[in-house]
Amino acid sequence: MSLAYKRVLLKLSGEALMGEDPFGINRATIEAMVADIAQVTQVGVELAIVIGGGNIFRGVAPGAAGMDRATADYMGMLATIMNALALQDAMKQAGMDARVQSALRMDQVVEPYIRPKAMRHLEEGRVVIFAAGTGNPFFTTDTAAALRGAEIGAEIVLKATKVDGVYTSDPKLDSKAVRYTTITFDEAIGKHLQVMDATAFALCRDQRLPINVFSIAKPGALMRVIQGADEGTLVHV
To answer: Which of 122, 127, 192, 218 is in the most buried spot, having the most CB atoms within 10 Å?
Structure first.
């Protein structure tokens, strides 16, 4: 099997775990994700994951109104640890070996983030789930994905969303919206396309780390991206 990428960083939003539920974790949804992840690890892809916490708590959500922003962001980081543990458990039940590393110290529950140890896990075929973002308030999990991707030497950042790529306009509102197959970082900036938050986007551009935006809800989409097929939108230098 021909693979376009050997080591990848997958960014999963917390909202992606909800499925059709209004909040929390939908079991069928997380099991479907794990099945797709297992498919790519079985062919030798080294996979790391950064997971968000928006299905439980988000520092900029209405529920955080009136709170100190740093405190709200730390609460959001704790939510990502909960999601990471749920994902790790689902992987374990599927026969996969996964480790959670957190940017916030919680040694009784998860490993601390230690780059050489994360690299060794990947080399030995384990999935590494990075939790708690960067460990700093005011930075999103998109930024954490860009940072961890650069640190572990990932060949690409895969941003899994509910939309199957980057469009000329919102496809939910505009029936004439067209999906970009590929687009450069500079074009995306010039067209004001919201691929990732500005900090994450700039970091990927500066590190020449491509991004592929695709729908995690499409069965087999992750494998097709790994194979270099026309799936989602590739953002490159």
So the answer is: 127
Structural domains of the chain, count: 1
Tell me the residue range of the domain where 41 lies: 7-236
Identify whether 2 is part of a domain.
no
- Residues 102, 131 contacting (CB under 8 angstroms): yes
Q: Is residue 46 part of a domain?
A: yes
Question: 147 phi and psi, to 5 degrees?
Answer: -65, -50
Sole residue written with tokens 């954490």: 144
**pLDDT, one tens digit for every residue, the chain (237 residues):** 789 999 999 999 999 999 889 899 999 999 999 999 999 999 999 999 999 999 999 777 777 888 999 999 999 999 999 999 999 999 999 999 999 999 999 999 999 999 999 999 999 999 999 999 999 999 999 999 999 999 999 999 999 998 899 999 888 889 899 999 999 999 999 998 988 999 999 999 999 999 999 999 899 999 999 999 999 999 999
This model's pTM is above 0.85 = yes
Is 1 contained in some domain?
A: no
Longest dimension (CA), the chain: 53
Strand partners, 234: 182, 212
Residue 63: strand, helix, or coil: helix
Give the dihedral sign, CA 227/230/235/236: positive
DSSP secondary structure code for residue 64 in this structure: G
CATH number at residue 54: 3.40.1160.10
Q: In the Cβ-directed half-sphere of 137, how many Cα atoms lie within 13 Å?
A: 11
Q: Considering only CA atoms, which of 123, 104, 197 is closest in space to residue 157? A: 197
Q: What type of residue sits at position 37?
A: I
Contact indicator for 167, 195 with CB cutoff of 8 Å: no
